[in-house]
Amino acid sequence: MQVKAKKFLGQHFLKDLSIAQKIADTLQGEDFQLVLEIGPGMGVLTQFLLKKEYPVEVVEIDRESVAYLNENFPVLNGKIHGTDFLKMDLRQFFNGKTMAIIGNFPYNISSQILFKALEYKELVPLFSGMFQKEVAQRITAKPGNKTYGILSVLTQAFYDTEYLFTVSPHVFNPPPKVDSGVIRLIRKNEFTLKVNEKLFFEVVKTAFNQRRKTLRNSLKSYNLPENITKMSIFALRPEQLSYSEFEDLTLLIEGHLQGGI
């Protein structure tokens, strides 16, 4: 039995076993209770995860893939979840267990998968896997880089990010039209912000929505007084700020909104 790749699910099945092994080897540390693979398909990566010392569970929305996994990986009996990862309540579903999230992520929802992991960051000390190369570079980009943006800041506020290696299209079936990139995110020891997290996300997104403008112009909607906007940070563009500087910026805005400045 072989599973046919479905375009609407963004499926590109990895066929290079050495790369699957390298992705499995991105797992490190013992700060999690299980490994959760997203979108295992026919289990090319799964087989190497099962050789590790961690309990493995998988989430797969494709019914044909679920049937394949049940037939070929009986060791995963009861640990193959045929559901949509993006709709799962990870706290409830896994009884509050901590997890490493890993996978060859479907390109069409890879950013949403990352945002989902950020939402449950207290449960996810490690996140690694394969993205479209451009997205992988965006996540790991540093301030001043042209690819640095919303994904970069929101991820790096909570995780140390590392771009590991590039994967060419020919190792997939069917081959995608772009290169892929494998990254690893390791949660920071201190991963709580000193500001309201919702406001932090909002400020970052508002700033990058007009990324060519200075913060003085892109953040006009907050109606900040001149004694704040004349500060040197407001003469910068969003791609020049690190996540910690965005945190300082949010602190200023938060103080203003609360009537303290």
What are the salient characteristics of this protein?
alpha/beta; 9 strands; 261 residues; Helicase, Ruva Protein, domain 3; Rossmann fold; seven-stranded mixed beta sheet; elongated
How does this structure look, described?
The protein is built from eleven helices and nine strands. The chain is an alpha/beta fold and 261 residues long. The protein has two domains: 181 residues, 3-Layer(aba) Sandwich (Rossmann fold), CATH 3.40.50.150; 61 residues, Orthogonal Bundle (Helicase, Ruva Protein, domain 3), CATH 1.10.8. The strands form two sheets. It has a seven-stranded mixed β-sheet with strand order 4-3-2-5-6-9-7, with helices on both faces. Helix 3 links the parallel strand 3 and strand 4. Helix 8 packs across helix 11. The longest helix is centred in the C-terminal third of the chain and has 15 residues. It starts with 12 loop residues before the first strand and ends with a helix. 36% of the residues are buried. The model has no long low-confidence stretch (mean pLDDT 94).
